[in-house]
Structure formats: structure tokens, C-alpha cells
Amino acid sequence: MDVKTGGLNYNVEEMVQGDRDYVWHHIKPHKLFQKSEQMIVVEGDGLTVKDIRGREYLDATSGGVWGVIVGFGRESIARAVYEQLKIMPYFAGTVGNIPSIKYAKKLIERLPGLGKVFFSNSGSEANEKAFKIVRQLATFDATRKGKRKILFRDRDYHGTTFGALSATGQHERRQDFGPFLDGFMGFPHALCYRCAFGKSYPDCNIDCARCVEETILKEGPETVGACIVEPITAGGGIIPPVKEYYPILQKICNKYDVYLIMDEVVCGFGRTGTFWGFQQYDVQPDMVTMAKGVAASYMPLSVTAVKNEIYDKFLCDPGVDAERMNYFRDISTYGGCAGAMSAALETIRIIEDENLLENSRAMGAYLLDGLQSLSDMPLVGDVRGCGLFCGVEFVKDKKTKQAISEGEMARLMANVAAEGVLVGKTTSSLPGNNTIMNFAPALIATKNDIDRIVAAVKAGIEKF
Ligand SMILES: Cc1ncc(COP(=O)(O)O)c(C=O)c1O
Description:
Helix content is 34%, strand content 17%. It has 14 helices and 18 strands. It has a seven-stranded mixed β-sheet, sandwiched between helices. A hairpin with a 4-residue loop joins strand 13 (380-385) and strand 14. The longest helix is centred in the first third of the chain and has 18 residues, at 123-140. The protein is globular and about 70 Å long. Bound molecules: pyridoxal-5'-phosphate (PLP). Pyridoxal-5'-phosphate (PLP) is lined by residues 65, 122-124, 127, 157-160, 230, 234-235, 263, 265-266, 291.
């Protein structure tokens, strides 16, 4: 069948075969597609995506991995990019361009306590920049000499490149890729449902946060430079730590002069109901990294934001031999390219003009309520979330909390998709526990959308 849509011409069978013959999809066991057909998306509008066979779905994943925060079909973003590309498509980030200056100002105005931004392309890259800042300072800055180790939390994900993967607490994402970089140390996760200390909140002393002090002391405070966390763990199973968690973590980091890096790649830009995920807590990060929602995933763009006092340490004098190498010697060819900046500027305008933070809060609470109403159904072990970012953990036995199998989880996912709703799940993350279904619709979701999502999950469980 030949199709013409939005200037794209293609033959359906040719595309299906071409996808099978040439494309190596991300994080997919392809053997499955020798017999069954892989989904090919062709169009999107709002929360709706259409596949190549003409089937429509309500996308509760914001484009699969939570990035399309303002929904599909935003002509104003496409126009903003088009207009910029006509005038000045690209020049290296070694010099300035107008949209990047405007965007940097807008971001800093929304990032209390931080003062400078460094642009790159992906979440992994944004985190690599943060690590490189820590490592470079550990070399030349007298007050931070030797502080090159980086702490990360079990179940958090920080990216696919070697530095970011070295800082990732998901065993299945790391498996087979070692050896990893030296100087990255893990500490326990903050999920109450499976407390790493076998305790129950609130009688737990918040040991999951306090234990970080032990790790720092064991490693030697003079060797530890930073601690990176996702404000709310995303791919590791939608884990909002309890409210006391970050103030405690912050106090420990401050005590030992350890930078607190918040990875806002998923939580940023309203996903949790506040502009930044960390704003759900009483905490002030030293660095913030972001991607995905930055330009609503219409263009690739990521950012590493730092406090001015960190940036100032790199203000060396190139004329002085002992100092001349002490500027941030890092570059990213496409980082901050003008088109992506224009998309990012337009994304912030949409978030604010359309009150999407408020909608994320209201619809998020409605979604959490709806999912919690399924708590008494079989298989539903735990329901958790914050803003338009929720997860349901599926178990065979509610008492022992034994997770359902991967095959059973796949069946459940297929049941929900058969209801016309796309949801996400923990994928190749946690051995024996990739059974957390996640929900992160675009921030424009309505009550009707949420009702459809919850109804699809309910039907999926009933048909199981
Ligand atoms: C919290 C977090 N940080 C970093 C990344 C890596 O981002 P990217 O895939 O753009 O490199 C991801 C990706 O899912 C993520 O969820």
C-alpha cells in the first residue's frame, strides 16, 4: 500500500521490510521481530500516535522515553526551528548565537542558585560534562585536590556512555560492558517498598540517605568529589524518596564538600509537577543536568548547569603558564546548535503559557489516585509517583513481594497495548524485577486521557 502523509511518501510493506532488514533498534531483542512485526510510528498529534498500519494509540510514555512533554504536532516548535535554520543553522559552541543566549538566560532565571549553563546533545553527555568538571577541579583547584570520586545510587540511570554507565546503578544496563571507570562508588536505593535496610518508614531513621556518610568516610572524604542522583529515580522503577531524604543527603554532602549533582534528564520541565524534580524537596543542588524535555525531544539538546562558584574556578589566565590549562577544556560539536535552542525556547513558552506545571500536578494526582484504586487487584504490589510520573509494580504474591516473571510482564504490557494505550516498563534494568509499569503522558494530558490509561491497565490485569 502506498501512503502520502505530510510530505512523506512511502510504501507500507517496503518500510516494514526495510525496518526488519536494516535498522538495529535500541535495547531490543530482534529475534522477536523475525516472526512478529515491530511497531513503526508515522504520525502524532497531542497524546495520540498512529502506526504504519493506521492503528491509533494514546501514548502514556511521551514518545517512549518521556521526552515529548508538550505532546506531538506542535507546529510552533517546528516553525521556530525552521525560522532559525534559515537565518543561521549552525556555528560551533565556541562562540555565541542568539537563541542560545536567550535560552541560557531563561533557564538560569528558573534555576535558583545556579549561574552558568554548558550545552551538549544527550543526557549521557550532560552527565559526562558534570563528571569532567569534578575531575578537572580535583586536579587543579587547591580546595578540591584529589576529590575525584563520584558516588551514585543503586537503581539510578545516568546514561549509556562509559562515564555515565560507570555511575549507573542498574545491573542489567551495565552487564557485559565492563571494565568501568575507576572512582565511581554506589550506595543503596531509596525505595521504601523494597527497603534495602529491611525497615519501614517512618521508623527507619532514613538510613538510605544517612548511609551515604558511611560511604564517604570509607572512601575518604578527601577523595570524594560529587554525588549524583535522579531527584526521582525514573528507569529504575519510579522511586520518589521520602521528603526527609534530600535534606539529609544535602547535609552530608555539604559536610564533606561533595558536590550534589541532580540529574533532571527525566524529572525536569514539569514532569513531577514542579519545574524541577528537586523542587519537590528542600534541597539545593550544586549542578543540574537535563535533556529529553529541554526541547520537548523535537530536537536533541542537553544542558549541564552549575553554580557560579564552580564556574568561577575555571576563570584562569591563559597568559600564565601555571594556569593556562585550567579552563573547562570540553566541546560538543552540536551542543547548543541554534535550531535546538529555538525549539527549547518555544518549549518553555508552551509550558508556561499553557500552565503545564499546574496540569502536571492536578492530572498527576488524578493519575496516582486512579492507579491506587487498582491496588486491591491481583498482581498490583505497589503504586507510586509524583506529578505525571507514576509507576505500578507487579508481583506474584503481595506478601512475599516476589515479582512476576519477564514473560508475564510482557503479556501484561501487550494486554494494555491491545486497549490502545502505550505504557512503559523497567527494561533491562533490575535482575528479576523489570516489572514496574510506568506512566508519563505529555503534560497536556486531560482527565479523559487519564481515565483511558487507568481503564486500560485495569482491563490488562483483568485479562491476564
Ligand atoms: C535520568 C536519566 N539520565 C540520563 C539519561 C541518558 O540520556 P540520553 O539517553 O539522552 O543519553 C537518561 C535516559 O533515559 C535518564 O533517564
